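Same chain as my last thread, 265 residues:
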Amino acid sequence: MHKQETEEAGRGAGARPETWLRRYHPTDARAELVCFPHAGGAAGFWRPLSEAVRHALDVRAVQYPGRQDRYREEPLDDLHRLADLIAEALAAGPAPAGPRVLLGHSMGASLAHEVALRLSGVPGQEVAALMVSGRRAPSCLGSGRPETDEALLARVRELGGTDPAVLAHPELLDVILPALRADYAAVAGYVPGGGLLSCPVVALTGDGDPEVAPDDVGPWRETTTGPFAMRVLTGGHFFLNDHLPAVSELAVSLSAAPARGPLSR
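reply #2:
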């Protein structure tokens, strides 16, 4: 697909929530949790969390183009463009019936932050709280990306979170590499847009994450005028997989009382 065709398709898809958002479990919950995957990741990453909180939260996982049921679409390599389209998709749907919390991991944390900023100016679509995970604060982001596919795959192996069998299978690699390349290009080229939130922000990180030091996570407090909390959990870059109960409890507590959650400045 040519670049112009991709952009035109993106503009059309941006107005359709069903293109960008996946629900894995039916629920009567009014509070909403919108989850953003990591670089190379897909909406299905959030299925276990959706199952864990289905009694309290309506989980909607973002599906980026170029993976899973959108694998035929060309991936986008611009985080701001992705944020524009996702915010448009959310705003095109009905206003949430209860508080809306955004949760993003790694690249998804930057996207969740950008989407929260965009929705802050849309009446009825504002975000009640933002959870960011496994990502340096905007003021601490670095630059650069792996120069070759071999270096890119080596980084993915180091971080974990991807089935080694997939990385060792040539045909499967042909399917996932375009999305990986685009996502890492998007991360490398990302420049935070600026602006301040007023909602609570919670930053999560793993104490053994090779890419994200706790000192680079604390400055997320600068992104909001509201309450802030930081949690350091055991594990590497995908520590979330080992702390599902804790993450679930925090998401539910934020949605139940976002302004009075377990936060402090």
